[in-house]
C-alpha cells in the first residue's frame, strides 16, 4: 500500500511516468547530434556520410533501435497482461540499461547495433506499458492533462539530448559520444525505483481477482473526504465493465482483437494502431533523429551551427509540448489532431519548396518550417496517439491492443528513420512532399473515424462503441460525463443547492 494519496499520489504517478518517457525522448534525440560528431565518425567511419560512408548503413544503425522497440512491444503483447504493468516497466528499465551500457562501450558497428537492439527492447516494453498504467490510475477529467505532462517530459528528454550532444561536441576524445549514450542509464534507474514505491493499476488487479488491493489503491487515489460508498460504486462499475468485455471477448483476448461484435474490439484496436501510424508518417522522426543532418545537408549550414539550431529547436519543441496540458481536456482530442495534421501538411509543403529553391532566404524559411512543424506536432499529435490506445481499448484487451499500437509506432518509426538518409541523398527536397501528402490524408481519417473521449471514464468510453453505430461524440442521453467522484460531488452540490432554496422559501414564509 502506497503512503501517498490524493493529489500527491497523482503527481508522483505522473512524475514517474514522465521519467520513463523522458528516457524515451532522450533515446530518440541522442543519436542525432552524434552522427556527425568528430569522435563518433572517427570511431565508426563506415557511417560517415560526409566522407564516403554508407547512408543506408547509417540509417540501419539508427533505425535498428526501432526494431528492438518493436519486439519489446510484442513481448508485452504476449506476456504483459500476465506479469502486470509495474513489473513490465521495471523489466524494461533493466533491459534498457544493459543496452545503454553496450552502446556506450561500443568499438565496432556490430557492437553498436547489438546495444541499440537491446536498448530498444527495454524501451518498447516501457512505451507499451507506461501509458496504460498511467491512464488506468488517472481520473477522467485529468487523464488527458496527465498524459500531456508525461509527453512534455518526453520532449524535455529530446531537448536534453540535443544540448548534451552540443555540449559534448567540444570534447575531442571518445567521451564525446560515450557519455551521452551512458547517461540513459540514470533515467532508467530513476524510473525503476519510482515504480517500486507506486501502486499497480487497480483495473489490472480487479481483472486478476485482487479486489482488496484494488480497493485500497482506489481509495488512495481519491481525495481524503471520499467515503467507502464512492469507492464501492467505482469498483462495481469496473467489475461490470470487465464482465461485459469478457463476454464480448468470448474468453480469448487474442481472438477478440480481430473481431468486432457488440463492443467493436477490432475497430477500437485499429484506431489505436492508426493513431500511432499517423504520428510516425507525419514525418516527426525525420526531424527528431536527423535535425542536424537536415540543417547541414538540406539547408547548407555548418556542423556547429546545425547542432546549436537543433538545440534551440528542442527548446521550442519542449515549450510547444506544454500547450496541450491546458487545452487537451478543454478542446478535446479530435480538434487538436485535425489542427496538427493541417499545420504539418502546410509546413512540409513549404519546406519542400524552400529546400528546392536553395537560396539563403529560402533556407531561413526552411528552418522556420522545421520549428513550426514541431509546434503543430507537439500540440496535436505528440501525446494523443499514446493516449488513445489506452482510452479506446477495453480492459479485456487493453494491454494487448496498446502493445500492438506501440508495435505499429516502432515499425513505422523504423521505416522513416531507415529511409530518411537515403531519401535525402537521392531525391533531396522531394522527401518532404510525400510527408506532406501523408498529413493531408490524415484529415479525413481523423474527422470520420475517431470518437471524442474528453472527460469520459474508461468505462463510459465503452458506451461510444456499443451498439450498431460508433458514436463520435457523447450524447446527454447516454448519462452524465465524468467519474464516480465527480458525479457524486455534482449530486451532493445539487442537493445542497435545493436545501438552500427550500430554506429561503421557508424563511420567506415565516417572515
From TrEMBL:
It is a multi-pass membrane protein. It is found in: Membrane. Residues 13-454 form the Major facilitator superfamily (MFS) profile domain. The chain crosses the membrane at residues 9-26, 62-81, 88-107, 113-134, 146-163, 175-198, 265-287, 307-329, 336-356, 362-389, 401-420, 432-450. GO terms for cellular component: membrane. GO terms for molecular function: carbohydrate:proton symporter activity. It holds the Pfam family Sugar_tr. Gene3D superfamilies: MFS general substrate transporter like domains. Keywords: Membrane, Transmembrane, Transmembrane helix, Transport. Belongs to the major facilitator superfamily. Sugar transporter (TC 2.A.1.1) family. This is General substrate transporter. It comes from Aulographum hederae CBS 113979.
Amino acid at each position: 500500500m502506497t503512503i501517498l494519496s490524493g493529489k500527491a499520489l497523482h503527481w508522483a504517478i505522473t512524475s514517474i511516468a514522465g521519467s520513463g518517457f523522458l528516457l524515451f525522448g532522450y533515446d530518440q534525440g541522442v543519436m542525432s547530434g552524434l552522427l556527425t560528431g568528430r569522435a563518433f565518425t572517427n570511431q565508426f567511419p563506415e557511417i560517415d556520410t560526409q566522407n564516403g560512408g554508407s547512408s543506408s548503413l547509417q540509417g540501419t544503425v539508427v533505425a535498428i533501435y526501432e526494431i528492438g522497440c518493436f519486439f519489446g512491444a510484442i513481448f508485452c503483447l504476449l506476456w504483459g497482461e500476465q506479469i502486470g504493468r509495474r513489473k513490465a516497466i521495471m523489466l524494461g528499465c533493466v533491459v534498457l540499461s544493459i543496452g545503454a551500457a553496450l552502446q556506450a562501450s561500443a568499438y565496432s558497428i556490430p557492437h553498436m547495433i547489438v546495444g541499440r537492439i537491446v536498448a530498444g527492447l527495454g524501451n518498447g516494453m516501457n512505451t507499451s506499458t507506461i501509458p496504460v498504467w498511467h491512464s488506468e490510475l488517472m481520473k477522467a477529467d485529468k487523464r488527458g492533462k496527465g498524459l500531456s505532462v508525461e509527453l512534455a517530459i518526453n520532449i524535455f528528454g529530446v531537448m536534453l539530448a540535443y544540448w548534451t550532444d552540443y555540449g559534448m561536441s567540444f570534447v575531442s576524445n571518445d567521451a564525446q559520444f560515450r557519455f551521452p549514450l551512458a547517461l540513459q542509464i540514470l533515467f532508467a534507474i530513476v524510473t525503476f525505483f519510482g515504480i517500486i514505491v507506486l501502486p499497480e493499476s487497480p483495473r489490472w488487479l480487479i481483472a486478476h481477482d485482487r479486489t482488496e488491493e484494488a480497493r485500497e489503491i482506489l481509495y488512495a487515489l481519491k481525495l481524503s473526504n471520499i467515503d467507502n460508498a464512492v469507492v464501492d460504486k467505482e469498483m462495481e462499475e469496473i467489475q461490470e465493465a470487465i464482465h461485459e468485455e469478457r463476454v464480448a471477448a468470448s474468453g480469448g483476448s487474442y481472438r477478440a482483437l480481430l473481431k468486432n461484435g457488440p463492443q467493436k474490439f477490432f475497430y477500437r484496436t485499429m484506431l489505436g494502431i492508426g493513431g500511432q501510424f499517423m504520428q510516425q508518417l507525419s514525418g516527426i522522426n525525420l526531424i527528431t533523429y536527423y535535425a542536424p543532418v537536415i540543417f547541414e545537408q538540406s539547408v547548407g549550414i555548418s556542423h556547429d551551427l546545425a547542432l546549436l539550431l537543433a538545440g534551440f529547436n528542442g527548446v521550442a519543441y519542449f515549450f510547444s509540448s506544454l500547450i496541450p496540458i491546458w487545452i487537451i481536456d478543454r478542446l478535446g482530442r479530435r480538434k487538436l489532431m485535425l489542427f496538427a495534421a493541417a499545420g504539418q501538411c502546410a509546413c512540409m509543403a513549404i519546406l519542400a519548396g524552400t529546400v528546392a529553391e536553395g537560396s539563403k532566404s529560402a533556407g531561413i524559411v526552411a528552418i522556420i518550417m522545421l520549428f513550426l512543424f514541431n509546434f503543430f506536432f507537439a500540440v496535436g499529435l505528440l501525446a494523443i496517439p499514446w493516449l488513445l490506445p489506452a482510452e479506446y481499448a477495453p480492459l479485456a484487451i487493453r494491454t494487448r491492443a496498446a502493445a500492438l499500437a506501440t508495435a505499429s509506432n516502432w515499425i513505422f518509426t523504423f521505416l522513416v528513420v531507415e529511409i530518411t538518409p537515403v531519401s535525402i541523398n537521392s531525391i533531396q527536397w522531394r522527401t518532404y512532399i510525400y510527408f506532406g501528402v501523408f498529413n493531408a490524408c490524415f484529415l479525413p481519417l481523423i474527422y470520420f473515424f475517431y470518437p471524442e473521449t474528453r472527460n469520459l471514464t474508461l468505462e463510459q468510453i465503452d458506451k461510444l462503441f456499443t451498439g450498431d453505430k460508433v458514436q463520435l461524440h457523447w450524447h446527454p442521453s447516454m448519462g452524465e460525463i465524468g467519474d464516480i467522484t465527480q458525479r457524486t460531488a455534482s449530486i451532493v452540490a445539487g442537493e445542497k443547492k435545493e436545501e438552500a432554496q427550500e430554506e429561503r422559501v421557508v424563511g420567506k414564509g415565516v417572515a
